[in-house]
Automatic annotation (TrEMBL):
Official protein name in the record: DMT family transporter
Coiled coil: none
Span of domain EamA: 7-139, 149-282
Pfam families associated with the record: EamA
Length: 302
């Protein structure tokens, strides 16, 4: 898979997640955030299990203990991100949730420098800034006093950044995208379910009333989109992946308008254009640099 194809895969994941904000928002009318998080990832485990088993049979070597531990750590960060985002969306709008979650675009390159000691391509910094500006404008270009839900969503963005970085580390070295997805989903589902047993009620009526949201979030937002993320990140860097995954804010706003009747301020359309420009930057600028190097004459000594 080429880098461009990988980034298009990540863009598709962002689109699926954007639509998922709608289902996450409406689901909170009938079911608690912990049970919703647990059930959606149990569904994802069921969806991914056949693919993971097939991958295991074809693998040349079994998973190492290091990779297994890494996959579980990814699941823990996914659980913390999903939980804080899901609770936060109860007291904020879909657009605000999309914007604040998108702050991981900035967190990822910062954490990459501090913890992985890797310096991203210079274009990542202005592109991350543009993406953040675009997401801000998309939310209306103004933020009132932050609510508790907003603060939780910012925390979710931090956990999302950790998850993106961990996936870059372990997806590339393990070569087992389906195993990674399955283990992170199972970890997240078990953690959420264990906590939900003590904090939230659950009934069959609540599950049936939320079946559409659960199926979309479990099959598409979780099973499909997170696996697309893992596959795409095998062929690109964490900061670049974060730029393309930030498109979920654009799609969240779009589906919020289409399905929930929310509105986008005129300045929001400019924000969408800026997000798109940021994604073009991280594709075009590095490619132009490589072509310039390839076309430069080689000096000879003689």
């Amino acid at each position: 898979m080429t880098r461009i194809q990988a980034n298009l895969v990540l863009l598709l994941a962002g689109a699926i997640w954007g639509a998922g904000f709608v289902s996450q928002s409406t689901a909170m009318e009938t079911i608690g955030p912990l049970w919703f998080t647990s059930l959606r990832f149990f569904i994802a485990v069921i969806v991914l299990a056949p693919f993971a088993l097939r991958e295991r049979r074809r693998a040349a070597v079994p998973l190492s203990g290091r990779h297994l531990t890494g996959f579980i750590a990814i699941g823990v960060s996914l659980f913390l991100a999903a939980l804080t985002q899901q609770i936060g969306i109860m007291t904020t709008t879909v657009a605000n949730s999309g914007f604040l979650t998108g702050l991981y675009v900035v967190f990822v390159p910062i954490l990459t420098v501090f913890f992985l000691r890797r310096r991203p391509h210079w274009v990542i910094w202005p592109a991350a800034g543009l993406a953040t500006l675009g997401i801000f404008l998309l939310s209306g270009g103004a933020l009132s006093a932050l609510t508790g839900g907003d603060l939780l969503t910012i925390l979710a963005a931090l956990f999302c950044a950790v998850q993106v970085i961990l996936i870059t580390v372990f997806a590339q070295s393990s070569g087992r995208p389906f195993a990674l997805s399955l283990i992170q989903f199972a970890t997240c589902a078990l953690l959420a379910g264990s906590v939900a047993l003590f904090l939230e009620p659950l009934s069959l009526e609540a599950i049936l009333a939320t079946k559409t949201e659960l199926l979309y979030s479990g099959i598409f937002s979780s099973g499909v989109a997170f696996t697309l993320q893992v596959v795409g990140q095998r062929y690109t860097t964490a900061p670049q992946a974060a730029i393309f995954l930030s498109s979920e804010a654009l799609f969240a706003a779009f589906f919020g308008v289409l399905l929930l009747g929310e509105t986008i301020a005129p300045i929001g359309y400019l924000g969408g254009i800026i997000i798109f420009a940021a994604m073009l930057m991280v594709e075009i600028v590095p490619e132009l640099g490589r072509r310039k190097i390839a076309e430069s004459p080689v000096s000879s000594v003689g």
